[in-house]
Amino acid sequence: SSCTWLFSSSVRDYFSLDVKTGAYAAMFKLVRRVILLSFAAFCLLPYVWTAGTAFKARLDITASPPKLLWKPTLENFATSYNGQGIVPLVLNTLIISISSVAVGLVIGVPAAYLFARHHTRLTKNLFLTVLSTRIAPPIALSLPFFIIFTQLGLRGTYFAVIVTHTIFNLAFVV
């Protein structure tokens, strides 16, 4: 091969380190830890930056160049709820999530049993229909759902949100 000179014994001996014993072991461990910690810090930097942005004032967020030191504020948290209490928001979340999971399980578990045990043309078409909800992006179906729920007078109700979440997540249950 044309690169055999790279692996000759003199080059190999020059670059090889005995990392199991000897003087190089401590240095190798230190260098390895520094590299791993540097990589971890690099990977965590966007999350730290995002969390820090929550405590910046509006002018500090949009400052160019970005400010690395700022006076922390809780103003963003106060304005994010527009004066609403947290209890109704959490209650809405619990009602919608528990209901959509329950409806999804009530529909999905028997459907999965049917699809697994009965192999007919109808079950294959129904299975494909259920799985097709994962193929289409949810944003593409949001306008038709909006129109349907508006015409039925269901816009802004728990029922509309529960049905929508159940339809999108039914493929995961089946």
What would your notes on this structure say?
The protein has 174 residues and is mostly helical. The chain has 8 helices and no strands. The chain has helices at residues 9-15, 24-53, 58-61, 75-80, 86-117, 121-135, 138-151, 158-173. Helix 6 (121-135) crosses helix 8.
Q: Terminal Cα separation, in Å? A: 55 Å
**Shape type:** flat
- Low-pLDDT regions: none
Mean pLDDT: 84
Specify the structural class: mainly alpha
Largest sheet: none
Radius of gyration: 29 Å
- Which H/E pattern describes the elements? HHHHHHHH
How many helices does DSSP assign? 8
Count of beta strands: 0
Q: Provide the helix percentage.
A: over 70%
Question: DSSP strand (E) fraction?
Answer: under 5%
Overview features:
single chain; 174 residues; mainly alpha; 8 helices
SSE layout and pairing:
Blueprint: H1 9-15, H2 24-53, H3 58-61, H4 75-80, H5 86-117, H6 121-135, H7 138-151, H8 158-173
Report a brief summary of the structure.
This protein is mostly helical.
